[in-house]
Amino acid sequence: MKSIAKIILSLLLSGMALPAMASLKVFTCEPEWAALATELGGERISAYSATTARQDPHHIEARPSLIAKVRNADLLICSGAELETGWLPLLLRQAGNARVMPGQAGFIEAAALVQRLEIPTHVDRSMGDVHAGGNPHVHLDPRNIAIVGRALTQRLIALDPDGASYYQQRQTDFSKRWQQAITRWQQQAAPLKGARVLVHHKDWVYLFNWLGIVTAGTLEPKPGLPTTAGHLVNLKQQLQKSPARMIIHAAYQSDRAAQRLSQLSGMPVVELPYTVGGADKTDDLFGLFDVTLQKLLGAK
Ligand SMILES: [Zn+2]
């Protein structure tokens, strides 16, 4: 058996056993876009994500292995709106791959395709690490996933015209299943409407906007800054006046500040996956939203 596996492996490595398809290499900044590319591109693409659900997408290191991935990519998909401003420009510069530069067919900025929330009227340093292009965490509204998915299909067809009917068929199939899931999620989430929820960072504005959840405060005193003891005391006082249902944080964030406020206030802490792979049963985008809603609804 071992030798058969070896032969198969060597065939795979030599490219002989690979179907003529599997042609497009898709580099994504975050796991949600790799999952979407896989839904729509199927066997004709291979998707790679620069970050996992346990990594803070605002801050990663522009490692040489990532530069090599960008150099070989046919298509790049990132959230944009400055989410990756600390590392993506460096990767692009070092990779020197003209096909995936901004403005090219091989570059997709998801946030540029959807209606962005929280676009500041002005930005200055006193505001902390604020995203000047509006909130970049667009994927947690599944309607945005649908919009980005349609654009992605068009790009896949432009870059790999031989696969046009394959991509179109997958788009139709995904879109049908996704719309059905959105309807189901909206029904399930009805009890969350109007709920006040305290968040670590404002990763959740698109999710909350979609479901009618209210942000009751943030553990970060300003975007991107660590919480302080004084800020937690202020939050506790605010919560006494207008209580909230829970404190949430993403799988990529430490729960220390959330646990501290929970001790002060008695509110439950809920860790949400934030993206694909951030919790059990979140191997794809459907699982991501299923689990996110289960966790929000189960908080006590
Ligand atoms: Zn952010």
Give the overall form.
globular
- Count every beta strand, where a strand is a DSSP E run of 2 or more residues: 8
List cofactors, ions and other ligands. Answer: zinc ion
What is CATH's topology name of the largest domain?
Rossmann fold
Q: Could you describe the largest sheet, including whether it forms a barrel? A: 4 strands, parallel
Which regions have little confidence, pLDDT < 50, spanning 5+ residues? Answer: 15-19
Spatial strand sequence of the major β-sheet? 2-1-3-4
- Tell me the series of helices and strands, N- to C-terminal: HEHEHEHEHHEHEHEHEH
Radius of gyration: 21 Å
**Structural domains: how many:** 2
Q: Structural class, judged by helices and strands? A: alpha/beta
CATH classification, class level of the largest domain:
Alpha Beta
Number of helices: 10
Query: CATH H-level name of the largest domain... which superfamily?
Result: Nitrogenase molybdenum iron protein domain
Strand content: 5-15%
Q: Kindly state the percentage of residues in helix.
A: 40-55%
